[in-house]
Design brief:
Blueprint (H helix, E strand, L loop, with lengths): L11 H9 L5 H19 L2 E4 L1 H16 L11 E5 L26 H8 L3 E6 L11 E2 L3 E2 L1 E2 L2 E5 L5 H8 L5 E6 L5 H7 L2 E4 L19 E6 L2 H11 L17 H8 L5 E5 L10 H12 L6 E5 L8 H15 L12 H11 L3 H24 L2 E5 L15 E2 L2 E2 L8 H8 L4 E8 L5 E7 L5 H14 L11
Parallel strand pairs: 2-3, 2-8, 11-12, 11-13
Antiparallel strand pairs: 1-3, 4-5, 6-7, 8-10, 9-10, 9-16, 13-17, 14-15, 16-17
Helix pairs in contact: 2-3, 5-6, 7-14, 8-14, 10-11, 10-12
Length: 473
């Protein structure tokens, strides 16, 4: 087996194919990614815990399995990053919090166990804001993760470490979680692909709130095909989760490929579903990408579709979630970061009437989305209405010249999709004039992941953005 130049920048599917063909070994694959980590992570700070010895042992075992001709899993030999809020047996998991600075779990999260069973090698834990609560990946333990496209800019949050590590070629695939947009926002800012699946497709265990449909685990990768491959390894029924379910398809990767063959599509493009404003350059790039999809088989309609009246209800339901999720920490609020503490304190002030009113609006939004998807197959909208902002900011103060009403207004285009319980992907669709990635959000009805990924693949093929400058020096 021989080492190939640039191995760590190939797609996961390409790397897996080379391993199967015995053109490269899992050990060489791992070493290529370790070399990238050594070279770039001190600058970017995407990875907070590295499991080098354990990963190398797994890589040698994976190589031996190849040489023996054993059946190989779909992710065999691929080095992956796991978000530092997802449990990894024997590998430190800190949640980005001083309270868990030295915590080493004794079990894998269900999603990690599935990825390992599919052949993946856990190489690293990726940086996150404290308890994944924040849109800028920074915490007291490890500091800030920097955007590989511009080191003075944020990667977003909260799966920011995973997105940056992927863009730099430090890992082949990244696991993450998504609540308000934590897979989609960093994917946008780092020029990779992130998918929020339908709640229940990927089992969530262990979790504080087993019946929660807000936070989900999902895949992130450099290519849409890799996201489909990883999703297939993550999904499946599990008695560990009371909301676990099976989709009406057996393989996202296979169904995704079939969707690309000549199916007529009706697409709605809505530039501002949240009524928070959109940076003019972001809208121009996303709007052009959407309109360029139109052909004899794809119809694209400009739409004023809006979910803006869900912004306040989302804050209310998010506040309730914060209190429920961190109920055991209510007596430790002063030990939590300011960002998380403020969120919990907001939730503690809510009334039952506030919660009931928010649920009523959510029901109306759900029915509005059902009506939309009666007329259209998918919805397109800018994932984030602004380019990456300076890393020193907790959140942007302005959007398109308008003062933000709340500190999370800028992620409203993603959190409103969460509020409605819909799957969505962010796919790169261009670069700003200053060379920063822009993402287009592709939204569909429940279980529409294959169709979402099919269109995302078309967008990525039509509008490639290349690699960050830091990886080309």
């Amino acid at each position: 087996m021989s080492t190939l130049g640039g191995l760590n920048h190939l797609t996961a599917i390409e790397i897996a194919g080379l391993i199967r063909a015995r053109d490269v070994s899992p050990v060489e694959v791992l070493q290529a990614h370790l070399d990238a980590i050594t070279r770039l992570n001190p600058t970017v700070n995407a990875i907070c815990t590295l499991a080098t010895e354990r990963a190398m042992t797994s890589a040698r075992e994976a190589e031996a399995a190849v040489m023996r001709g054993e059946p190989l899993g779909p992710l065999h030999g691929l080095p992956i990053g796991i978000k530092d809020v997802t449990l990894t047996a024997g590998i430190r998991t800190t949640y980005g919090s001083p309270l868990y600075a030295d915590y080493v779990p004794n079990e894998d999260a269900a999603v990690v166990a599935r990825l390992v069973q599919a052949g993946a090698i856990v190489l690293a834990k990726t940086n996150t804001p404290e308890f994944a609560a924040g849109g800028n990946t920074v915490n007291k333990l490890f500091g800030a993760t920097r955007n590989p496209w511009n080191l003075s800019s944020t990667v977003g949050g909260s799966t920011g470490g995973g997105a940056a590590a992927l863009a730099c070629g430090m890992i082949a695939l990244a696991e993450g979680t998504d609540f308000g947009g934590s897979l989609r926002v960093p994917a946008t800012f780092c020029g990779v692909v992130g998918l929020r699946p339908t709640a229940g497709l990927v089992p969530s265990y262990p979790v504080t709130l087993p019946w929660d449909i807000g936070r989900v685990h999902g895949p992130m990768a450099r290519s849409v095909e890799d996201v489909a491959l990883m999703l297939d390894a993550m999904i499946g029924l599990s008695d560990l989760s009371p909301i676990s379910l099976l989709p009406p398809w057996t393989s996202a990767a296979e169904r995704f490929a079939s969707h690309r063959r000549g199916k007529a599509l009706r697409l709605a493009y809505a530039p501002d579903i949240a009524d928070v404003g959109v940076d003019a350059e972001i809208e121009q790039i996303c709007g052009t990408a959407a309109r360029d999809l139109a052909n004899s088989e794809i119809k694209v309609d400009e739409s004023r579709f809006s979910l803006a009246d869900g912004r306040d209800p989302y804050l209310v339901l998010r506040g309730q979630w914060m209190v429920s999720q961190y109920f055991d920490y209510l007596h430790k609020l002063d030990q939590l970061g300011a960002n998380l503490k403020v969120n919990i304190e907001y939730g503690l002030k809510l009334t039952t009437k506030d919660l009931a009113a928010a649920e009523h609006v959510r029901a109306q939004l759900w029915n509005r989305c059902r009506a939309l998807f009666h007329d259209f197959d998918l919805l397109l909208t800018p994932t984030v209405p602004i380019p990456p902002f300076p890393i020193e900011q907790n959140y942007p103060q302005m959007i398109a010249g308008r003062q933000v009403a709340t500190y999370i207004d800028w992620v409203a285009p993603t959190f409103l999709i969460t509020l409605c319980g819909l799957p969505a992907a962010s796919v790169p669709c261009g670069l700003t004039g200053t060379g920063l990635p822009v993402g287009l959000q592709v939204v569909g009805p429940r279980y529409a992941e294959p169709q979402i990924l099919s269109l995302a693949k078309l967008i990525q093929d039509m509008r490639p953005i290349g690699r960050p400058p830091i990886t080309r020096t």
